[in-house]
Amino acid sequence: MEPVKVGICGLGTVGSGSFNILLKNAEEITRRVGRSIVIEQVGARRDNDTCDTAGINVTRDIFDVVNNPEIDIVLELIGGTGVAKELVMTALENGKHVVTANKALIAEHGNDIFAKAQEKGVIVAFEAAVAGGIPIIKAVREGLSANRIDWLAGIINGTGNFILTEMSEKQRNFDDVLAEAQALGYAEADPTFDVEGIDAAHKLTILASIAFGIPLQFEKTYTEGISRITAEDVAFADELGYAVKHLGIARRTKQGIELRVHPTLIAHKHLLANVNGVMNAIMVQGDAVGPTLTYGAGAGALPTGSSVVADVIDVARTLTADPTNRVPHLAFQADALSDVEVLPVEEIECGFFLNMTIQDRAGVLANITQILSNNGISIESLIQREREGSDLVPLVVMTHDVKERNMNAAIAAIEALPDVAGVVQRIRVENLA
Ligand SMILES: NC(=O)C1=CN([C@@H]2O[C@H](COP(=O)(O)OP(=O)(O)OC[C@H]3O[C@@H](n4cnc5c(N)ncnc54)[C@H](O)[C@@H]3O)[C@@H](O)[C@H]2O)C=CC1
Ligand SMILES: N[C@@H](CC=O)C(=O)O
Ligand code: NA
User: Quick one: fold of 4-133+302-336?
Assistant: First the structure.
């Protein structure tokens, strides 16, 4: 049989990983697919030392790739939502299948892209876009398709988890660890996407769509990053028996859907609290299967390339299958997406860890507990520390579950007390039972 011809756009971290896997495992891949997969052309601004492109057609113009009539599958591995969108739309218009690792593109423009793919009868595959090497899209969209998914929660940004782990285990400084994550190829081109939670929000948007059958709604995802987390927060949390992890959470409730990414306290004994470094893990709760957990590298050239190439294999296999029987892009039929409401964060209920600085003076603690109680908030535990030579001392409060709305009111009142210095740090606590 004729080989399947692939064109790679972008030869950076993920492009090089995918390129090298396609060459190294060519024989094994042919055994799996029943025909060979060859790299017909590479579009790259510059060469990559880790890739031997001898004998391969290399162009500096990535649009040569999507306009090359020989190519069956285009790999979009340049990133961003500008040129990348134009590239993907052109490839689809030209009748080519597309494999991408670009979560920003899918989360923000996926609705348009999938509509175009459907019109043209081609596939857009994006396993690498969520949690790097973990086959979570396939797991949710296919492996768990018998279930009504109740919720999912996971560590879905490798850079952020790498930073939190190094800060907690080695007391390293935030900027240092971020620079290392960039050098290792984990971080986004703009690393604020990693540290401000935008990248995790892109991924959660995609996961929620395939779990619940809702359109992609990135703009409705509540997004908070790890940049405000201090070494002191991590140490206090640890003392109380918790790890600080950056989680993406999507949950169905009677009122609507929770879609949120933020730092979270998780009990040390919980599996997610023990996912460290660049590793990602996602819990999915289905009504039939119960809780499931997948774990693996969330970023890096070869782990991400693993997902890209698996998608190429999937597409190559379906080239001989009936197009109407393929798995729908968002797991549910395009005309069967539901418009259930995404809840505002004020409606979400969880426990809180509050870390504040107060004057070491009689009555301050009583004022704070009174405010909490006035807002219907009960305290689970509390740490108050003396600080030698200073009458400003740290106070940490853990609360039982309460609506974010009540907590907002309580924090505003606490911050207005003359004996409370600066802002109250809040980290949400999840039991994930
Ligand atoms: N680095 C990682 O571990 C992961 C990255 N991703 C996603 O994969 C995509 C690529 O990311 P990386 O490989 O990390 O980025 P990168 O910056 O290492 O690679 C991108 C490459 O594309 C090239 N490029 C960009 N625009 C171009 C243009 N107009 N013409 C020719 N070449 C162009 C750049 O020169 C660069 O070599 C992004 O969407 C990213 O979000 C997804 C999962 C993991
Ligand atoms: N920057 C991302 C790369 C993978 O998606 C991350 O760190 O997780
Ligand atoms: Na994946």
Answer: Rossmann fold (3.40.50)
Would you list the DSSP string of 316-372?
A: HHHTTS-GGGSPPTTSS-GGG---PPBPPGGG-EEEEEEEEEEE--TTHHHHHHHHH
Residues 6+ apart with CB under 8 A from 281: 134, 154, 155, 271, 272, 275, 293, 294, 295, 296
| Nearest ligand (C-alpha, residue 135) | 3
Report the phi/psi class of residue 259: left, alpha or beta, with left for phi > 0 and alpha for psi in -120 to 50. Answer: beta
Chain-centroid distance of CA 317 in Å reads 28
Q: Could you report the per-residue pLDDT of 51-101, keeping only the tens digit for each?
A: 999 999 999 999 999 999 999 999 999 999 999 999 999 999 999 999 999
Q: Which residues does 64 contact at the CB level (< 8 Å), separation at least 6?
A: 41, 43
Q: Identify the CA nearest to 17 among candidates 149, 163, 128.
A: 128
In the chain, where the domains are located: 4-133+302-336, 136-298, 348-429
Nearest ligand 2 atom to the CA of 162 is 7
Quick one: 136-298 is in which CATH superfamily? Dihydrodipicolinate Reductase; domain 2 (3.30.360.10)
**pTM exceeds 0.80, yes or no:** yes
Q: At what angle do helices 231-239 and 158-170 cross, to 10 degrees?
A: 70
225 is in an annotated binding site: no
Alpha helices in 70-197 (DSSP H): 83-93, 103-120, 136-138, 158-170, 174-183, 192-195
Three-state DSSP string of 240-268: CCEEEEEEEEEEECCCCEEEEEEEEEEEC
Closest CA to 432 of 242, 276, 157, 167: 242
Alpha carbon distance 122, 270 (integer Å): 41
Look up 203 and say whether it is catalytic: yes
- Ligand closest to the CA atom of residue 133: 3
58 lines ligand 1 (CB under 6 A): no
**Is 12 annotated as ligand-binding?**
yes
Query: What fold, for 348-429?
Result: Alpha-Beta Plaits (3.30.70)
- List the structure tokens of 364: 């301050």
Residue 363 in marked binding region? no
Express each pLDDT in 312-351 by its tens digit.
Answer: 999 998 887 655 555 667 767 788 888 999 999 999 999 9
Please give the mean pLDDT across all residues of the chain: 95
Best residue for ligand 1 mutational test, from 14, 50, 67, 193 (most atoms within 8 Å of Cβ): 14
Q: What is the pLDDT of residue 432?
A: 81
